[in-house]
Amino acid sequence: QVQLVESGGGLVQAGDSLRLSCAASGRTFSSYAIAWFRQAPGKEREFVADNTAYADSVKGRFTISRDNAKNTVYLQMNTLKPEDTAIYYCAARVYGRGTNWRTYPYWGQGTQVTVSS
Length: 117
What we know:
The protein is mainly beta and 117 residues long. The strands form two sheets. Strands 2, 4, 5, 8, 9 and 10 form a six-stranded mixed β-sheet that branches. A four-stranded antiparallel β-sheet has the order 1-3-7-6, with no helix packed on it.
């Protein structure tokens, strides 16, 4: 298995940037497909990004990257909007990438991102 810990969330104003980190331990980090999801109050958990795709709502603003040597994946979030406010999670699974959160067995604890107007 793999353990995941997110960090880097916070309170920012619209237009600001944040970089989220997902630190992994356990099985070889490079063996897993890693994705970012988010969940806002009262809304369904949704896919944000992985190494091959971005949600339409974040394209051009968010960038995912990965450093296997540090066992860490990053989500750079630029030009943040109030609608980006959510708990952000990184998740991992063994059998390739996917956008359905229900197929990911390994999750971090989440990090809160709040974007004010």
